[in-house]
Amino acid sequence: MTPAEQAQAQAEEAMEKFLFYSKRACLYIVMGLVVVVVGCNNGVETGPGKTGSQYNGEQYAPENLNVKDK
User: Fold this and answer.
1) 3-state DSSP call for residue 2?
2) What is the separation of C-alpha 61 from the centre of its chain, rounded to a whole number of angstroms?
């Protein structure tokens, strides 16, 4: 084999390994993010009997700011 052929073979082997491990790393990252997102959403309650913090528009209405009109 000539040095150019050896370099080509080595580059192809390195690229194959790089792609293999990159795909595997991306897969593990996506799986980890899915686990985190599903885990965080399991505690969220929905429906008529839900508890926890709920937005109350009347409580935050800006009626008591005493803003003077010009």
Assistant:
1) coil
2) 34
Q: Give the Cα separation of 67 and 31 in Å (integer).
A: 52
pLDDT at 4: 95
20, amino acid identity: F
Query: Tens of pLDDT along the chain (70 residues)?
Result: 899 999 999 999 999 999 999 999 999 999 999 999 888 877 677 777 777 667 777 777 676 666 666 5
Q: What is the pTM of this model?
A: 0.56
Measured CA distances, 44 to 37, 40, 69 (Å)? 12, 8, 42
- Do 15 and 7 contact (CB within 8 A), yes or no? no
Q: Which DSSP category does 42 fall into?
A: T
Q: Are 52 and 45 in contact (CB under 8 A)?
A: yes
Tokens of 28: 């593990």
